[in-house]
Amino acid sequence: MEIVAVDDQKKPPERPVVAGTSAVTLVGGGALRPSDLHAALALAPVLVAVDSGADSVSAAGLTPTAVIGDLDSVSTAVRARLPADIFHEISEQDSTDFDKALRHLAVPLVLAVGFTGARLDHELAVFHSLVTRSGHRCIVIGERDVVFHAPLRLGVDLPPGTRVSLFPMGPVTGRSRGLRWPIDGLAFHPARRIGTSNEATGERVEIETDARGLLVILPRAELDAAVSALSEAGENLWIV
Predict the structure, then answer these.
(1) Sign of CA dihedral 13, 2, 110, 183
(2) Rounded to an integer, what distance in angstroms lies between the CA atom of residue 174 and that of residue 202?
(3) What is the pTM for the complete model shown?
């Protein structure tokens, strides 16, 4: 795992802050359940905090590999407690801290915890970044759900009856197998047709879309299935 220092704190670095072959657990300043943090770390052992997520990580008795963001919310006490060289300030205000962090990670998978259950506008901004930073494999873990941006071709193994919700962040059409209500011929659009509360039939769920922009929402219990599905996706990633 490579940690790239940021020499000029006034602008984003030329290279990623964290790069390597290990998956990253990314912690935000929202609601954070210890069980979610531990589940994420079991699958993604490199710990990175986003701004005030450093406070949550410190409260759990852990030290992150890096802290990324504009750093306007991390507490003074935690800033003093943690090593100074792990803080990477990205001071521009044209993007959220989640987006700043995601675009400065070059790793095979990101599991994001602490980004749901608090401010709704922040949560919506996270989902926006899942689409705009679609070159990254990232799964947002919430109390009841996991959310990720669908690659153009997705295959996931789910038990019959499992809820599969599809939410478009832009116009998307596609085809499917293994869903109770196939999406073939449907024109998804955030202001018109959405796809909440579909179900897996027990056959492998396969979804193919003609454009990016479709969020997949599964029950929290299907985190492992989501990780396996994204790991199998054969698209070019690590776009920074």
Answers:
(1) positive
(2) 20
(3) 0.89
DSSP string, the chain: -EE---S-TTS--SS-SEESSS-EEEE-SS---HHHHHHHHHH--EEEEETTHHHHHHHTT---SEEEE--SSS-HHHHHHS-GGGEEE---SSS-HHHHHHHTEESS-EEEESSSSS-HHHHHHHHHHHHHTTTS-EEEE-SSEEEEEPPSEEEE---TT-EEEEEESS-EEEEEESBSS--TT-EE-TTS--EEEEEB-SSPEEEEESSS-EEEEEEGGGHHHHHHHHHH--S-----
Taking the domains of the chain in order of start, what are their residue ranges? 19-143, 153-209
Residues 102 and 110 sit within 8 Å (Cβ to Cβ): yes
Give yes or no for residue 14 having a pLDDT over 90: no
**Tokens at 38, concatenated:** 């531990």
Among 33, 35, 106, residue whose Cα is nearest residue 68: 106
Q: How confident is the model at residue 184 (pLDDT cuts 50, 70, 90)?
A: very high
Beta-carbon contacts of residue 201 (< 8 Å; ≥ 6 apart): 160, 178, 179, 180
What is the pLDDT at residue 235? 53
pLDDT in tens, 127-183: 999 999 888 899 999 999 999 999 999 999 999 999 999 999 999 999 999 999 999
> Rounded distance, CA 15 to CA 6, Å?
9
**pLDDT average, residue stretch 113-122:** 88
* Assigned CATH class of 19-143: alpha beta
